[in-house]
Amino acid sequence: MLNLSAVHHIALICSDYETSKRFYTEVLGLTILGEYFRAERNSYKLDLALNGHYIVELFSFPNPPRRPSRPEALGLRHLAFAVPDLDAAIAHLNEKGVLTEPIRVDEHSGRRFTFFPDPDDLPLEFYEL
């Protein structure tokens, strides 16, 4: 039997490295564990942590293709972050100029959530615990 123990990381490719770096660190509050420029690929790799746990790899590549549609394109639908207070999280995003969708309620759990875009329009979610 396969023995998975955790999600190790989520890899994202961005179109504007500095803009996405600011968004994930200054808006979402992830911390930088390591930052690397890979000259042979003309690519940056930024390792980011949430509460001290490595969670996101942010990559830049020259001219990556756009996502075909949002959020129902084949592949990763969205990335969700758990928050203790959805209203406070939305207020924080709005203060930083990030617009959120109307609050929805999970029909199975009764928990509230909302979606918002990252700088490349990747759908992100805050899910209230």
What would your notes on this structure say?
With 129 residues, the protein is of the alpha/beta class. The protein has two domains: 1-62, 2,3-Dihydroxybiphenyl 1,2-Dioxygenase, domain 1 (Roll); 77-129, 2,3-Dihydroxybiphenyl 1,2-Dioxygenase, domain 1 (Roll). 16% of the residues lie in helices and 37% in strands. The chain has two helices and eight strands; from the N terminus they run βαββββαβββ.
Main β-sheet: number of strands, strand sense, barrel status? 4 strands, mixed
Indicate how many domains the architecture comprises: 2
Report the span from N to C terminus. 31 Å
Helix content: 10-25%
Low-confidence stretches: none
Q: What would you call the structural class?
A: alpha/beta
CATH superfamily of the largest domain: 2,3-Dihydroxybiphenyl 1,2-Dioxygenase, domain 1
Assigned CATH class of the largest domain? Alpha Beta
Order of helices and strands: EHEEEEHEEE
Shape descriptor: globular
Keywords: Metal-binding
Protein name: VOC family protein
GO molecular function, one term: metal ion binding
Pfam family, one: Glyoxalase
